[in-house]
TrEMBL record:
GO cellular component labels: mitochondrion
InterPro entries: MeMal-semiAld_DH
Protein name, UniProt field: TLDc domain-containing protein
Gene Ontology molecular function: methylmalonate-semialdehyde dehydrogenase (acylating, NAD) activity
Domain of life of the source: Eukaryota
GO terms, biological process: L-valine catabolic process; thymine catabolic process
Family named by the database record: Belongs to the aldehyde dehydrogenase family.
Phylogenetic lineage: Eukaryota, Fungi, Dikarya, Ascomycota, Pezizomycotina
Length: 599
């Protein structure tokens, strides 16, 4: 009968396993003394001496690969110690296979104690030699491997800053905590209100799909109305709620004693998605499918608490995100964040104004609650998160890397990402006016229809005082889309108001999708959603006055002995009087530029 020393082995691993099992059965353990994996390996007893040379090993077996097979050659069969009956004290004898390691990792992931794991392993392999300390060491290895696949706040911060210019690194870094929390909670869908403790790659992938809406409304049903034609990416009520919940600080496990269908909305959507693909195709007849087992009803699962709105978003987290959205807003129009590096003070002021729309009536609050959050997304800044693809696109984009060879260093990889995620279409930033600049343009982009060519303004009229005759001639002589900007001071506080007049629309009758807005000292916008509200005919009634009305807001611009004034009247009975110091009329015409990060 052939022994293991007479056999030829197809692989190095097969031969090592056979030799280890033989050694243990004889009362000793072996260890690799020196190895050349593709040619030969010198093996010795774990209590043996030192390896001396390739020809005369002090003690052990040398295996040489010939003709594609591995063979065992014994150089010294003698031992300088008694053979043992119990080999568990030998670490070399306590070697486990990859399959056994995977099984132990699985049990560790289920928090099973080490001694119980040993009992479970020995049921399938009674001959295995393993101690509780071995399992503890494997647990350390398991935790290290787990952490290697996790994204911490620092990891996300480092990745995002690598795709931005160094001047904007602080702006990006300060938004990392809320974005990490948002991705972690969305990645835990439908249980985002009781999220995973760590952001693994799978959780990150799911969070990306939901946050960037890469599922194209398969997850949450859009609300079909007329506004969707003007703001196609405007968040629905369900999407606003999900986004708000993902940004709030976790409140711990919430148990609703009287759950309703609305409370289970998200877990119901998750069941719909997995049920849709719950079938198996016939390998020979692909059109023939076999339906999988039926899933339990929604009530069988824990509630997703989908209607939960009691949380809040800390302002210290939310403000950096708004600032970052201002920097990335124009990327979709071909204007990269690099253009803002010299405008950081203006961005800070614009962020403070923008934040007020999320704190309506709660300006002194240190947190954003759901009602003003939803109102802001519905009425004031429907496009506020349009810059997210620029921020997170490098994590998902299908753009190919310029080389198949991995980058030689982190610095090289970061520089590659910066080059890769510059806009595919470069747009020259418009020149500054008395009022217009890039931060103002970003905020207008958050307000105006998405197909508006915001990146190509033409300044028709500029003045530091109200000259009504010239102003009206420029406002009424063209049918192009126009924006009227008026700046000044109310008391000692700077103020900016404006009106968006769509193409083919007269200022005398502001129709859809006209907008009246205020950019300073607070941010608000009023969109035309109801019946037309006619303005006073400026030429007929008063040659020194221009009245523009929309919804429950009326702007009255007057020419005076000094520079002129603007009176803003709001539906809640309040009003503001502004001493004008600058007026601009901008015209917009051109092809709509849209940079798609994922193409």
């Amino acid at each position: 009968m052939a022994t293991l020393f007479d056999q030829a082995y197809d692989s190095r691993e097969e031969m090592l396993l056979a030799l280890r099992n033989y050694a243990i059965s004889q009362g000793y353990a072996i260890t690799i003394i020196r190895s050349n994996p593709n040619r030969n390996v010198c093996i010795g007893c774990d209590r043996g001496g030192q390896y001396s040379d390739r020809i005369n090993a002090a003690e052990g077996a040398k295996r040489r690969k010939t003709y594609g097979k591995w063979h065992i050659k014994v150089s010294n069969p003698y031992h300088n110690h008694e053979l043992e009956d119990n080999m568990i004290a030998h670490p070399a004898a306590r070697t486990i296979t990859q399959e056994q390691r995977a099984t132990i990792y699985h049990h560790l992931d289920e928090n099973i104690p080490p001694r119980q794991i040993i009992s479970l392993i020995k049921k399938s392999d009674p001959t295995i030699l393993i101690t509780p300390m071995d399992v503890y060491n494997l647990r350390k290895s398991f935790l290290r491997e787990q952490l290697a696949g996790l994204w911490t706040v620092s990891d996300l911060r480092e990745f995002m800053t690598s795709t931005f210019p160094s001047e904007l690194a602080l702006c990006v870094a300060e938004a990392a905590p809320i974005l990490h929390r948002c991705l972690l909670r969305l990645g835990s869908f439908p249980y985002h209100n009781d999220p995973h403790p760590t952001l693994s790659l799978d959780v990150l992938r799911t969070g990306m799909i939901i946050l960037l809406r890469l599922d194209r409304d398969n997850l949450l049903d859009p609300e079909i109305d007329e506004a969707s034609l003007v703001f196609p990416d405007r968040l629905s009520t369900q999407q606003q709620l999900l986004l708000f919940q993902s940004m709030t600080e976790p409140q711990g496990t919430f148990v609703n004693p009287s759950r309703s269908a609305a409370d289970d909305h998200h877990v119901g959507k998750a069941l719909e998605i997995i049920t849709y693909g719950n079938f198996k195709r016939n390998a020979r007849f692909p059109t023939a499918v076999t339906q999988g087992p039926k899933y339990p009803p929604v009530e069988h699962f824990p509630s997703s608490n989908s209607t939960l709105t009691t949380g809040s978003i800390p302002v210290e987290d939310f403000r950096p995100l708004l600032r970052l959205m201002l920097l990335t807003q124009l990327y979709v129009a071909g204007i990269d964040p690099d253009n803002f590096t010299s405008l950081l003070s203006e961005i800070e002021a614009a962020t403070d104004c923008l934040l007020t729309t999320f704190l309506k009536g709660e300006e002194s609050s240190n947190a954003v609650s759901f009602t003003p959050f939803a109102n802001a997304l519905s009425k004031s800044v429907p496009n506020v998160f349009l810059g997210l693809p620029r921020l997170l696109g490098p994590l998902h984009s299908v753009k190919p890397f310029p080389s198949a060879t991995p980058p030689s260093s982190l610095a090289v990889a970061q520089e590659m990402l910066k080059r890769l995620f510059t806009p595919s279409v470069k747009t020259q930033p418009p020149a500054n006016g008395l009022i217009m600049n890039l931060p103002v343009l970003s905020r207008l982009s958050m307000i105006l229809p998405q197909d508006f060519p915001i990146e190509a303004p033409e300044i028709l009229y500029v003045s530091r005082e109200v000259d009504m005759e010239n102003l009206k001639s420029y406002l009424f002589k063209t049918s192009k889309a126009r924006i009227l900007l008026v700046s000044g001071k109310t008391g000692q506080v700077p103020a900016i108001f404006g009106v968006y007049i769509p193409i083919g629309c007269s200022p005398a009758t502001l129709n859809k999708p006209s907008v009246i807005f205020q950019l300073a000292p607070i941010h608000r916008s009023i969109h035309q959603t109801g019946d037309l509200v006619p303005s006073k005919e400026p030429f007929v009634e008063d040659s020194a006055c221009l009245t523009l009305a929309l919804g429950d807001v009326t702007l009255v611009l007057r020419q005076g002995s000094m520079k002129g004034s603007l009176n803003a009247q709001f539906g809640d009975g309040t009003s503001q009087e502004v001493v004008v110091d600058a007026i601009e009329v901008l015209s917009f015409e051109g092809s709509f530029v849209c940079v798609n990060t994922f193409r």
